[in-house]
Design a protein that fits this description.
The protein has a single domain, classed as NAD(P)-binding Rossmann-like Domain (Rossmann fold). The chain has a seven-stranded parallel β-sheet, with helices on both faces. The relative contact order is 0.13. The protein contains ten helices and seven strands. The model has no long low-confidence stretch (mean pLDDT 92). Helix 1 packs across helix 8 and helix 4 packs parallel to helix 5. It is α/β, with parallel strands linked by helices. Strand 4, helix 4 and strand 5 form a beta-alpha-beta unit. It comes from Mucilaginibacter auburnensis. This is Short-subunit dehydrogenase. GO terms for molecular function: oxidoreductase activity. Pfam families: adh_short.
Amino acid sequence: MENQGKTALITGGTSGIGKELAKLFAQDGYNLIIVARNQQELDSTSAELSAMGVKVSTIAKDLSIMDEAKALCTEITQQVDVLVNDAAQGLYGLFKDNDLERELDMIHLNICSTVILTKHFVNQMLTRGEGKVLNLASIASKVPGPWQAVYHGTKAFVYSFTLAVREEMKDSGITFTALLPGATDTDFFNKAGMNESRIVQDKDSLSDPVDVAKDGYEALMAGEDYVISGFKNKAMITGANLMPDSAVAHMMNEQQKPVEQDQH
């Protein structure tokens, strides 16, 4: 296996898209470092992935705390060949009503920890002249999102940042890829308090994290700049690109507002 001895570091690697990505790396012979907040979840995921014949290290860190994100960088002594910034959180509700501290935690996790980890590990990759970075953006990167105003803003940052650094480093041997899923069947919406949203109530419209991870993994290995996962999401973004931004914001408001608001 050509990847034997190589290591992928995956944040948010115990559930959802992050866990499915970890399985794909393990299938290809990568050793893994998985990072999440909950040690029990890390242990059970580690047991599952180790059974695939690769070495799995676990590190429990809350990456919404900047000192923990920085500590993660210094604690990892082995070479990281692939960095996957998957850990992220959302928060549902009107901006004027949402808790400020939760919004700031989200910005710290979704944006700041991505910047901290990318800077640290990319500088290590530079000394070797090779490496790969996969950043979890979202189709939220491409459209304003009423009811998730700050979350959509953080994902717009991730997408823009990924493509900008990719261009800066195009001759470095390091590739940067952004994965843009749509609404996916994970615990994300539950944690974001978003179960009332129309988009989540329509279970049939949610993507399977297995499919999303596969799209992201293949784009990463091919060195692509970004991939929008799923035909429906590609079509939606193509349509949104043809509309004025204010009209897109209105369309997203209709999709994301609570279902009971329709009955008033």
